[in-house]
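User: Need the bound-state model for zinc ion:
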Amino acid sequence: MSPRIHIAVSAAVQEALATIIRRDERTVESYWSHPDCPVLVFADHKLPGASVSFHGGPIGTGLPIQLIYWGGWWKSAAGAARRAMINDRTQRLINSEYFSELTQYGIDRPTWRDPALICTKPYPPSSFTNKEEPHVVRDLIDHLIDDDVFPDPDDGRIAFVVLMPEGFKETIGDNGQHTSDFDQDFLDRDYYWVAWIRYFADPPTDDPENTIRTLSHELVEMFTDPEADAWYVGSPEGGEIGDAAQSPGDYQTALVNGARASAYWSNRHAATVIPIDRDYKARIRGAISVTARRTVSRVFRPDPAENRLCSIVPECCFEDRDYAYTLVSRDESVSLRMETLRYYSPVAAWTINGRAVSGKGSITVRVIAETFTGRATSYTQRDVSLGYDATDSTITLAAVKLDANFDVEVGCSVNTALLRNGFGTLSPVEATIVIAELFTIGFLILRLAVHLFRYGSIQYSSKLSIAGTFRKRSTPAGK
Ligand SMILES: [Zn+2]
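Assistant: Bound-state model below.
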């Protein structure tokens, strides 16, 4: 009897149903499974309406994103480290599926415009204390276009993002804004689009990664409503797609390709969404070990029926005497370990025959138990008690002195800490980006071993067939 281990993977997923078994080492390994959840859909939102509609203005499709770091601080060691983080996260977003739901608004994914710029003159403002002051950001872009640092907007639109330096404060209640203005060149009026992002200090008061939350919010709004006359509902202040991404008291975010991104409104889902990475995956690897072994020696007499071929095939004759056999009974332990890719701080939730388990304990499960009655296999329903030890990434199951073969189903679903905020508003499936796997693990506990004294030791997996044994041992007739 060989180890019976197979997996069935639950609805969400499915690539393969088989487990690779390396019998000699008694290890098991499943194929990678992927969640079927490319988009997080949030259950609540703050959109002041049921959908955003198009108001006829321009949109920003496939724009290059130009980051501009404003002020000399960005050249300091701390500033350089912060720049590296923001450059990295922004490119991670561009290289992810994050912007993919904007295609419903006619917008292709943006690109990265190299290099990001540090701008020390004019000096950056130290604060915004009223709604008028942010005009200095528009003036900065106007100035840079006039100086030919950037091309005339006619020659290709750019999504400008200006990042404020350490020390910058705002008291106008905005983490950032996106706006537009125009550059007047004789009769030529060229609009340019720019967002500014405030400085985010270190924890515990603040978190630099929230720079990206605001940056992604302003970008998706700049693309869909750059001049406050394209996609919004109600008014452009508060009715753009990024503004909808709030749950009570919190922003809706998720890690996308390692960047903390804001949710945005999707008409198609009638909800705020975050397209996530397609390469989440998980698998389970494990090993089975024998922890104890007992043998029972018994004897049997052949049935008359087993001798019925004797008159025709001499090899099928055998003596009517006692034959010895042994039942080898073993205690087994199964250790399974979850392996994941992409998950941020993954946590496994384990079930045994559908019941959740955590920590150490024992569980009684009803199984169909295979045992040997004499030389024959029989099956009965039986309650068996299994010991378990479940952690965030592993589970060990132990069967002790059960003297039966049976299957139990071990379920594993992978949860992730990638979601911040809005967590409780997601349905469980969406919130966990779940990969649920169900393993059916066969505990192999009994083995019938028959030793025919005359022919040495032979092991059988089912009812002993003496005739078959003899045939196996007979030499083929030569010709
Ligand atoms: Zn907004």
